TrEMBL record:
A single Gene Ontology CC term: extracellular matrix
Region (Disordered): 50-95
Source organism, top-level taxon: Eukaryota
Matching PROSITE patterns: CHIT_BIND_RR_1, CHIT_BIND_RR_2
Protein name: Larval cuticle protein A2B
Name of a matching Pfam family: Chitin_bind_4
GO molecular-function term, one example from the UniProt record: structural constituent of cuticle
UniProt keyword annotations, A-Z: Cuticle, Repeat
InterPro entries tied to this protein: CHIT_BIND_RR_consensus, Insect_cuticle, Insect_Cuticle_Struc_Prot
């Protein structure tokens, strides 16, 4: 036969100073149902069947050399516009574009030198007599 287990020591009493700050025992409760906030969407009946706008800007900065412009207009489903800018190689790129439901988006790109090409002086070739 086995010897009996030793009896555990009596519990240590909690000092009064600690007892006042002891964490309360939480009771397990059934979880509360959480309702997500409902986002209200305001729907307005504003619909413009023929939207129209027109805008443009122009930047010419002598300090940085930045030079660009843009104009655009819309009437219904047709958009027309043009923008231009100075490319790093010194050419001016201009893009003229249109967009409509029938033809889609179309753009024409042009590149023009900003600095005029140096004029080449025409020199008459020396006239040589052919022997006879």
């Amino acid at each position: 036969m086995l010897p009996p287990w030793p009896t555990p020591p009596p519990p240590t009493p909690i000092p009064l100073a600690y007892a006042a700050h002891a964490a309360p025992i939480a009771k397990v409760a059934t979880p509360l149902a959480y309702a997500a906030p409902v986002a209200k969407t305001v729907v307005t009946d504003e619909y413009d069947p023929n939207p129209q706008y027109s805008y443009g800007y122009d930047v010419q900065d002598g300090l940085t050399g930045d030079s660009k412009s843009h104009v655009e207009s819309r009437s219904g489903d047709v958009v027309q516009g043009s923008y231009s800018l100075t490319d790093p190689d010194g050419t001016r790129r201009t893009v003229d574009y249109t967009a409509d439901p029938v033809n889609g988006f179309n753009a024409v790109v042009r590149r023009e030198p900003l600095v005029a090409a140096p004029a080449v002086a025409k020199v008459a070739a020396p006239w040589l007599m052919q022997p006879q």
